[in-house]
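hey so i finally got around to running both of the ones u sent me last week. sorry it took forever, my laptop kept dying halfway thru and i had to restart like 3 times lol. anyway pasting them below in the order u listed, first the sequence line then the structure token line for each. didnt double check formatting much so if smth looks off just lmk and ill redo it

first one:
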Amino acid sequence: MPVTGLFFLPNQGADSSPTQDILARLTTHYNPSPTGPWTLSHRLFRETPSNAPPPANGPDRGKPPGPRYLQILTLSHHAPRTHVTITTTHAPSQTRAGTPASSNISAEATSGEPATVISIPQGASSEEFIQLMMSKFGPLWQLRQILNVVNGQAFEVGDFRVRVGEVRQGGGGGGQIGKGAVCEVEWVGVEGEEEWEAAGPVITGFWEGLGIRGARRVFGVPGLAKGEGSVRQWCEVLRVRG
């Protein structure tokens, strides 16, 4: 079962080009074989504060709960499905044993409260769901952002599949804002829990071989249905913070 890691590198200014930086380093250090383009679309909704119930008991009783997020994600390499997740309130992200302290691991991987994930047919059905959220559920969920990956390129490098693309915020047409670059590193052929535990350092080592600093890192979660771990980590890396 493949295991993936995601690396998001934000824009540092008007003249920065993190996507081109990653591609240049990838070509220089690993001599990758191109496998074709890829795309991503992501919509994020945040639960309106008035609809978030307070904790019923425990040490956090009476404290305002953290926000919940509903996310709609379409990945070209996960076609023909569109994925919908609802992320429940979590404790702050923690670092999995064996990974660098600077890594940002999804809180659901350590809190025992995984996100709910459902999938719907891509195309008309997913568009109808989006329109339903916008027209009927506005009082419950507020649209916070729309993200797309443009100029996505995929490669093979030995036992790795690598996808690199530019993340842009905004709807179709003009007026989109460049947010940075995302790189998915997929290590193929991983079998069993022990090998999965070793995947974090292996994927991190691949990324660090590029010599790029300042990226936010998110790793997948073992023991899930095929493809679900990748969906959950994409939703984590694309989610608005705070």
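and the second one:
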Amino acid sequence: MWELERRGFVCSGDFTPEVVLDYPERVRALHEEFVLAGSDVVEAFTYYAHEGKLKSIGRESDFEALNLSALAMAREIATQSGKLMAGNICNTTTFDPGQPGNVARTKEMFRVQIDWAVRGGADYIIAETFNELAEAKLALEAIKQFGNDLPSVVTLAPYSREVTLDDVPLPEALRQLELAGADVVGLNCGRGPETMLPLLREARTLCKVGQSL
């Protein structure tokens, strides 16, 4: 997302991945660049490719085509290069744990993308950039329920505070995700190594599963 934004193909602010449909050759080229740089995984560019975000830019009708195209592209390049392929879900920006109807809708958003990732040949599912532990847990629950036993990687986004938006210390939040069944837990986005690594070191004292940056 960030690299395509720097190149002018993702709009700052919305950060929706319509580039997958509008300029697929750019997404394909970036996947290939990451592979050439040594990445072991090709991650489908379905970040913010859920109905809620796409509706905000008037492209909800592209929901299915965008996700399926992104998954097919990632699977093809991963197979050609002998790499793993990861499906992706992320924070929704509309999650409200105080509204049961909202929680159910959020889980359904996750379910649809997870189902497509399974059918698209993903080797595992990444759920990333969550600010609230409750939403991260809901995403993990959806992966475990609908992910056809694929491994799960769940990461939180540590911004300026040392706690989640629902006031759980980040290392403890990662521990709770481990206890809930995540195969890998970690942090992504929002910080550089100097301020992120100390939190991960603390998390390592609490967690036994793999940690991911």
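quick thing i noticed on the 2nd:
The domain at 2-207 is CATH 3.20.20.330 (TIM Barrel).
anyway thats it, ttyl
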